[in-house]
Structure formats: C-alpha cells, structure tokens
Design goal:
The complex is a heterodimer of chains A (about 300) and B (about 375).
Chain A lengths: L2 H30 L7 H19 L2 H25 L4 H20 L24 H6 L3 H19 L1 H11 L1 H6 L4 H27 L11 H11 L4 H15 L1 H7 L6 H5 L1 H14 L2 H7 L13
Helix pairs in contact in A: 1-6, 1-9, 1-10, 1-11, 2-3, 2-4, 2-9, 2-10, 3-4, 3-9, 6-7, 7-9, 10-11, 10-14, 11-14
Chain B lengths: L2 E5 L5 H25 L4 H9 L6 H26 L7 H18 L7 H28 L3 H21 L34 H18 L1 H11 L1 H6 L4 H28 L10 H11 L4 H25 L5 H16 L1 H4 E5 L18
Antiparallel strand pairs in B: 1-2
The chains are: A mainly alpha (about 300), B mainly alpha (about 375).
C-alpha cells in the first residue's frame, strides 16, 4: 500500500466519520441527561433536506447549515413534547420520530431530488496541510469538518470540565436527587434533546451540503442508528466517541482499501461492512453486562415527573 | 400553561381504544391543512388519497394484497412488543424471507408438483425466523441491544438481497436486469379470483391472526410473554425463563415476517426484485402500536396502513403529490397516537375551570 493511498484513506476516514461524530456528540449529551432519543435518523434526514433546500434556493451554504440545525431542532422539539412533556415511552417516541422524519424529508424534498449544488469545498491550511499523511487528513478538509473538531472540543469541555456538564450528569444519574437540589430536571432534559436535534440536523446538513452535495431520499443510510451504537461503543465517554466515529468512518470506506490492494469483492457485500462492524462492536462491548451498567447513565430512557 | 394534566390514578379503558381513533382523526385534519397550504383542495385530495383507491372491486383486492405483508409482520411484532423486546427488524426479516424463498424457488423452477410452493414457503419462513434468531442469540448470549442489532440487520439484509439479485440469483436470460427468473407455476401462490391479484397468502394471514390471538389472549406462553413485558423481575421471581421467552418471541416474530416476504415473491411479484418491500416492515411498527398490540386492533390498523399505501400511489397519479405522503402520514399517526396516549393516565383540565384540585397548588416541590 503506497503513501498516496494511505493519505487518501485517512482523508476519507475523517470525512465519513464527521457526520457520525456530529450526531453521536448530540446523542451523547442527550443520553447523559437521561433521555434516549432513537429519532436521530429522522432528524438527520430532515436537517439534510432543510439545509439543502435553503442552500439551493438562496445560494448561501451557511444559511443551509443554519436551517439544517433548525430543522433538526424542530423535530427534536416534537420528541421533547411527547416523550418529556407527555411522559410517553421514549423508545416508541424515538421510533415514531424516525418514521416521521423519513416521511417528512422525502415529502419535502420530492422536488429537489438529484439537483446539483456546489457544496463546501476543502480548504487547505497553508504549511500544516503539507505534513505527510496527517496534513491532508486534518488540515485540508472543508469548513464543516473544522467546525466538527471545534464542536467536539466544546462538548468535551462542557461535559468534563464545566458546571453545566455536572448538572447534565446529575440529572441523568439521579433526577430525583437533582430535583431535590433545585435543579430544573425537565428543562435540562429538554435543552439536551434540543441540542441533540441541532447536532443531528447539522450532521444531515453535512451530508447534503458537503459530503455529497445533493438530496436523495434516505441519503443518511442508517448513520443515525450507527451513531446510537457508537455512544454505547464509547461507553458514554466523549473521547471514545471521537475515536469510534472515525473507526466507523474507516469501516464504511473499506471498499476503497479493497480496491487499493486489488481485491475484487462485490460492492453490495462491502456495503454491509459498517452495519456488520456495528453489530460486532456491540457484541464485544456489551458482553460484559456489568460494564455497560456501570457506564450508562442510571436513569437512561426512564420517564420522570416531578414528585414521583 | 392554561391546560394542565391531572393524573387519573387509573388506566382509562375507553381512552385506550379512543386514542388510536383520535390519532387517526388528528392525522386527517393535519393532512387536510397540509394539502390546503400546498394549494391542493383539502377534501378533494383526502378523497383521492383514502376513498378513490378502494372504490371498486379491484381496489379492494389491491388493499388486501398490500395489507397482507403488513398484517403478518405486525402480528409478529405484537408478540415481541408485548414482551417489551424491541424488534425493529421486521423489514430485514421480511427481506431475508423473500431471499431464502426465492433461492429455493429458482432451483425448483422446473418442478410440476405443489411441493415446490410448500418448500419455498417453509424455507422463507425459516429464513425470517433465523434472521430474528440472530438478534435473540446476540441478546441472550452477548447482551447486545436488540434495537440496534435488528436495525443493523435490516441494512445487512437489504444489501444481501441486492447482492443476490445482482449476482447468484440473477436471471441469466434477463438482459442483465437485477432480477431473478420468473418462478415456475408450481411455486406460485394461486390467485383467489380471476383478474384480481389477491392471492392464497390471505389464508396464512387469517391463520396467523387466529394463532397470535390464541397465543396472546388464551395461552400460558402468551401470559408469560406479557408478564415478561410488564415486569421482568417478577417474571424472574416466578421462574419464567427469560432467555427462552426471548428466543420464542423473536422466532415467531421473524417467522411471520419471513412468511410475509416469501408470500410477496411467490405471490403477486413472482420473482425476486430489489424492491420487494416498500417499507412494509417499518409500517408494521406503526400498525402494531396503532392496533394496541392486539391482533384484532392490528387487523384494522393494517387495513388502514394498506389504504395509505394505495392512496400514496393514487395521490401521485391523480393529484401530483409525492408518493412519500404514505410515510409522512405513517409517522404522523404514530406521533399523534403516542401524544394522545397521555390521556389514558391523565385527564386534561383547564386552569381555573371546574373543581379546583385541592391544596396541590400550595404544596411545596416534593423533596424526593
């Protein structure tokens, strides 16, 4: 394997890992606060279509990014209303959100399928991007990838070092105690869900504005679900979310690797890889039930109402 | 907030069944508003969507053709969801059923005997069951979350099916189209009436309906499944074997979805094609909830869902609306259902109207 191929693979790994990283960061914050939102796929798709239409209509890519975030937030608000406001089952509500988001995005985007858009272009940072292999990987990406690095730093700092992070975790670990301490449990959870929605929308926007600048039905191809597995993989630790996102990115571009070293495996079989890899990873990590229980937020997925 | 929710303190039986009806009504109203805002006459469009498709005998037959796979999948989901096993994988199990059944069907293409059909159906059903069994194995052996494994297996199944129609099962005389050869007549499910597409799979669906009803409402196994769903710890205390129930529920669910898949390919389609299912397995999730995980409720919900599929096709042709209106309505109705379900345990009350809840307003925030 020559150095050019390696450079290309690492470059593509970051690109494919970026949407996973964005959704997974949002879902991580959400789950840390004790809410399990299975609607990631739906929010991503709606973010993708909202961002694409806005960018296509106005010619302004950043407006597209903003609309993508807002689109994701809009859907997450529905989730918050039903799952947190009405105390509905979070698993069922999340599923409903995904089904709804898939339908809504296909319906909204029906007239925009296959339209061409000049998306975000890679911007190489002088000097740094000339470092062999990692130069192109880290410093010759598009602006949204740089934004994802910044957002990772922000989420990591908030969760690990800030008071807000402590509040989120307190609410997720023991909502009753948090409430007794005077923390607004529901408000924290709603905000966490909204943040998750914005991140999922942004991830969708990355797909339709930078990764493959176009709109196609179901273009996220299960990335929202993979991100959910990623959070389990990371045992709810933010550093591992980053690692996992890029590892999964690598798994989804293995066909490049296979071509590079001259293997001919049918494309459809290679396309199964990220999904199979997800299952394998889940198996390896979940085998130890105690470990999962130790790291998962204690009140994850359980409805909570003041005074119960 | 002007409107507040007050705990009823019990489960309202009427609301349990009114909620799906309310959800359907709210979906219709939102749909009408959506059409109006897009410049389509709302009532006219609803008629195109929901009444025109079934205005003749052919339409009714098509309704049954579409309802069949949804009903089979949803009946299976009722079994697992009653045990609170979240199998999202009906779609993948259906596809594997279709794939496995087709693999048999193309190999027995020359057979004259009816055993060809039986063999295809059995292998298809077992295929679906095995695919769900994979989830059961991963969960019981390795503790891997079944929501995530089953959804990953959906994508895997779709890619396997695509691989098969582009590779091993592709019709050698098919001009390179990604399709299998047309199956032999002996492998096809008979049509029930001339000129109508409704086929013998209907009997399986009715049989499955009765069987699942008996299982859930009248059998000890069904009782164990429900107890497991209501309180896992209690099920453990009385000695129900959780892992065994996991396996049984998932195998039944996967088997029914597999049967739905194979019945599609040996029924109305007649060959393996990439688009075996327009998301029947996902629609079945909505149907299972809408039918309250009760076989009779599911029967009605699956007819409604099939109507939405037909309506989506009709709306595309007659009103120039995207066909994805089907999925949109699917999502809406499920959302409204979950929202309306709040009324089962709570009653809405206008602030300042009627009887004031005594003293609760003065109570301090409870400490624990």
């Amino acid at each position: 394997m020559d150095i050019d191929l390696l450079t290309n693979i690492f470059y593509a790994m970051i690109r494919t890992g970026t949407p996973l990283l964005l959704v997974a960061l949002g879902e991580l914050v959400c789950e840390k606060s004790g809410v399990l939102n299975l609607g990631q796929e739906g929010m991503m798709l709606f973010g993708a279509v909202a961002g694409f239409i806005a960018a296509f209509a106005t010619g302004n890519l950043w407006l597209g990014v903003v609309l993508a975030c807002l689109g994701g937030m809009l859907l997450s608000q529905l989730f918050a209303l039903v799952a947190l406001g009405f105390n509905a089952n979070q698993v069922a509500t999340g599923l409903a959100l995904t089904i709804f988001g898939v339908g809504l995005s296909s319906f909204t985007g029906a007239g925009w399928v296959g339209k061409p858009l000049a998306g975000f272009e890679p911007i190489a940072i002088p000097l740094l991007s000339e470092i062999p292999v990692i130069g192109r990987m880290l410093f010759a990406q598009d602006l949204l990838v740089y934004l994802s690095f910044a957002l990772f730093g922000l989420v990591a700092w908030v969760l690990l070092k800030s008071r807000v992070g402590l509040i989120i975790q307190a609410v997720g670990e023991n909502p009753d105690a948090a409430s007794a301490m005077g923390l607004p449990v529901l408000r924290v959870r709603v905000l966490a869900v909204l943040f998750g929605g914005a991140m999922a929308g942004l991830a969708g926007g990355y797909m339709s504005l930078a990764y493959t600048p176009m709109w196609a039905e179901n273009m996220t191809a299960g990335r929202g679900w993979i991100a959910l597995a990623l959070v389990v993989f990371a045992s709810w630790r933010v550093g591992r979310v980053l690692l996992g996102a890029y590892l999964f990115g690598l798994a989804s571009i293995l066909h490049l690797v296979a071509q590079g070293i001259g293997l001919s495996i049918p494309g459809n079989l290679l396309a199964m890889l990220p999904y199979v890899a997800t299952i394998v990873v889940l198996v390896l990590l979940s085998r130890d039930a105690i470990r999962t229980r130790l790291y998962a937020p204690v009140s994850l997925g359980q409805p909570w109402k003041a005074g119960h | 907030m002007l409107l507040s929710l007050e705990p009823r303190g019990y489960e309202s039986r009427p609301m349990l069944w009114l909620s799906p009806v309310l959800a359907a009504l709210l979906t219709l109203i939102s749909g009408a508003l959506l059409f109006a805002s897009l410049g389509h006459p709302p009532l006219e469009t609803l008629r195109v969507l929901l009444i025109d498709p079934v205005s003749d005998l052919y339409g009714v037959s098509e309704l049954l053709v579409k309802a069949l796979p949804i009903l089979l999948c949803a009946l299976g989901l009722a079994v697992v969801y009653n045990a609170r096993i979240w199998n999202i994988g009906a779609e993948g199990q259906l596809l594997i059923g279709a794939l496995a059944g087709s693999a048999v069907a193309v190999h027995v293409i020359g057979w004259e005997s009816r055993w060809a059909l039986v063999l295809s159906l059995v292998v298809g059903t077992l295929g679906g069951a095995a695919w769900a069994g994979l989830c059961a194995w991963l969960r019981t052996q390795f503790n891997a979350n079944e929501i995530l494994t089953s959804i990953m297996l959906n994508y895997t199944a779709l890619n396997l099916l695509l691989f098969a129609v582009h590779g091993p099962l592709k019709d050698p005389e098919g001009f390179n189209f990604p399709e299998s050869a047309m199956f032999g007549d002996a492998t096809r499910l008979p049509q029930l009436f001339e000129d109508l597409r409704v086929h013998g799979g209907l009997y399986f669906a009715l049989l499955a309906l009765v069987a699942v009803w008996v299982l859930l409402q009248r059998s000890f196994l069904g009782f164990q499944i429900k107890v497991l769903g209501l309180d896992k710890r209690a099920a453990g205390f009385v000695g129900f074997r959780e892992k065994r129930l996991f396996w049984i529920a998932l195998l039944i669910s996967g088997g029914l979805a597999g049967l739905a898949g194979v019945a599609e390919v040996v029924g109305p389609i007649g060959q393996l094609v990439p688009q075996v299912s327009p998301g029947y397995g996902y629609a079945a999730i909505t149907v299972a909830f809408l039918g309250r995980l009760n076989p009779i409720g599911i029967l009605f919900a699956s007819l409604l869902m099939a109507l939405l599929y037909l309506g989506g096709e009709n709306a595309q042709m007659a009103a120039n609306l995207p066909q994805s209106i089907t999925q949109l309505f699917q999502g809406m109705v499920l959302f409204f259902l979950l929202a309306c379900d709040v009324l089962i345990l709570y009653r809405p009350r206008m602030k300042g109207w009627g009887r004031k809840p005594q003293a609760t307003a003065l109570e301090p925030e409870p400490a624990a």
